C-alpha cells in the first residue's frame, strides 16, 4: 500500500512538473528587418528600438521583437518576398523595393510632386495613401501600417556644380534599377547607370558613375560624400519607407496585441519622420561640413527641372505602370495644396 502511494506521489509530481514547464501562452516573435546600421543616430534603427520597447512592454512579453538591421535578412526584394510568405513578420522597405512586388508604387517616382514634408504627409496619411495600402494588401497579403520618410532626394556628382538641366548633360548618374529613375535622368540629358545599392560606393570611388541621387540620410549613412564633391539640393523625389507587416500574422494577434503593434508603429513613424526631416531641413549645413560644395536652387530653377522631367516620366507611368494610380496621386497632390 505504502509502495502504491509512493508511486502515485512520484507520478503526480512528474505531471505537475511537466505542466509548470509549459508556457501559459506561446510567445509570438516579430522579426523586424531594416537596412540602416544598428546605431541610434540612424532613423530606421532608432525607430525600430522604439517599436520594440513599446510592443514588448505593452504586451507584457507575449510578443518578442527581434531587430535585424543593416540588411541582415537580405535585400529589399528578399524582405518583400519574406513578408509575402510570412518568414519575415515586419519590414521597413523603401518605395522602390515595394514596387518590385506591387507595381503601382512606381508612381512615387514622379519627380517634383511635393512642395514640402507637410504636403507629402497630407497625401500619404490621407485617403489616397490608405486606398493604395488597401490595394497592396489585397494584391500581396502585405499590410501597409505607415509611411515614414526616406528623405528628399538630391543629385550629387564629382565633376561640377549643377544648377540647370543643361549642367547634367554628359554625366553618368547612378540610379536604382528602376525604369522610372532611368527615365528621369535621361530627361535631363545625363546617362543613367543602373547599379545595385551595395555596389554604389565602389562605383562612385572608381568613377564607374560620376554621380548619384539620394537623400541626405543615405548620403551620410553610406559616407557617399567621400567620393562626391558637389551636391545640388533640387529635391526631385520625396522618398519614403513603408512599414509593412504580413497580414496573416497581424490577424493572428489578439486585439490587445494588435493595438500594441499599431501604437508601436505610430511611435516608430514619428521618430523616423522627425529624425529624417531634421536632416533634410539642415541638408546644406550637414553636407557642407563634410566638405561638399552645396548648391541650393531657386523655385524658378526647380521649375526648369520639373518641366524637363515630369512629362516623360508621367507618360511612362501612365503607359507602363498605371494610368489610374498616376491620375489618383496627381489629384491627391492638387487637393492637398488647398
TrEMBL record:
<dbReference type="InterPro" id="IPR038404">
    <property type="entry name" value="TRAP_DctP_sf"/>
</dbReference>
<dbReference type="InterPro" id="IPR004682">
    <property type="entry name" value="TRAP_DctP"/>
</dbReference>
<dbReference type="Pfam" id="PF03480">
    <property type="entry name" value="DctP"/>
</dbReference>
<comment type="similarity">
    <text>Belongs to the bacterial solute-binding protein 7 family.</text>
</comment>
<protein>
    <submittedName>
        <fullName>DctP family TRAP transporter solute-binding subunit</fullName>
    </submittedName>
</protein>
<keyword id="KW-0732">Signal</keyword>
<feature type="signal peptide">
    <location>
        <begin position="1"/>
        <end position="26"/>
    </location>
</feature>
<dbReference type="InterPro" id="IPR018389">
    <property type="entry name" value="DctP_fam"/>
</dbReference>
<keyword id="KW-0813">Transport</keyword>
Amino acid at each position: 500500500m505504502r509502495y502504491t502511494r509512493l508511486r502515485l506521489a512520484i507520478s503526480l509530481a512528474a505531471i505537475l512538473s511537466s505542466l509548470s514547464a509549459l508556457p501559459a501562452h506561446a510567445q509570438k516573435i516579430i522579426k523586424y528587418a531594416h537596412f540602416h546600421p544598428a546605431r541610434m543616430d540612424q532613423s530606421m534603427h532608432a525607430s525600430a528600438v522604439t517599436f520594440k520597447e513599446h510592443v514588448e512592454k505593452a504586451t507584457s512579453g507575449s510578443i518578442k521583437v527581434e531587430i535585424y538591421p543593416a540588411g541582415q535578412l537580405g535585400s529589399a526584394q528578399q524582405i518583400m518576398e519574406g513578408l509575402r510568405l510570412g518568414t519575415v513578420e515586419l519590414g521597413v522597405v523603401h518605395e522602390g523595393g515595394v514596387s518590385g512586388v506591387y507595381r503601382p508604387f512606381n508612381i512615387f517616382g514622379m519627380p517634383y510632386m511635393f512642395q514640402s514634408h507637410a504636403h507629402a504627409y497630407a497625401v500619404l496619411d490621407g485617403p489616397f495613401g490608405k486606398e493604395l495600402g488597401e490595394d497592396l494588401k489585397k494584391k500581396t497579403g502585405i499590410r501597409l501600417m505607415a509611411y515614414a520618410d526616406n528623405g528628399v532626394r538630391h543629385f550629387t556628382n564629382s565633376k561640377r556644380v549643377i544648377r540647370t538641366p543643361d549642367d547634367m548633360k554628359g554625366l553618368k548618374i547612378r540610379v536604382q534599377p528602376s525604369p522610372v529613375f532611368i527615365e528621369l535622368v535621361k530627361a535631363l540629358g545625363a546617362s543613367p547607370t543602373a547599379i545595385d545599392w551595395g555596389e554604389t560606393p565602389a562605383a562612385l570611388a572608381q568613377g564607374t558613375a560620376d554621380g548619384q541621387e539620394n537623400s541626405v540620410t543615405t548620403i551620410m549613412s553610406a559616407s557617399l560624400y567621400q567620393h562626391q564633391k558637389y551636391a545640388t539640393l533640387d529635391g526631385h523625389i520625396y522618398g519614403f519607407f513603408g512599414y509593412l507587416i504580413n497580414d496573416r500574422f497581424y490577424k493572428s494577434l489578439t486585439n490587445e496585441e494588435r493595438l500594441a503593434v499599431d501604437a508601436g508603429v505610430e511611435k516608430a513613424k514619428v521618430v523616423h519622420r522627425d529624425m529624417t526631416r531634421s536632416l533634410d531641413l539642415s541638408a546644406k549645413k550637414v553636407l557642407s561640413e563634410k566638405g561638399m560644395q552645396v548648391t541650393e536652387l531657386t523655385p524658378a530653377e526647380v521649375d526648369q527641372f520639373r518641366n524637363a522631367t515630369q512629362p516623360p516620366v508621367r507618360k511612362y507611368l501612365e503607359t507602363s505602370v498605371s494610368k489610374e494610380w498616376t491620375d489618383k496621386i496627381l489629384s491627391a497632390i492638387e487637393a492637398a495644396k488647398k
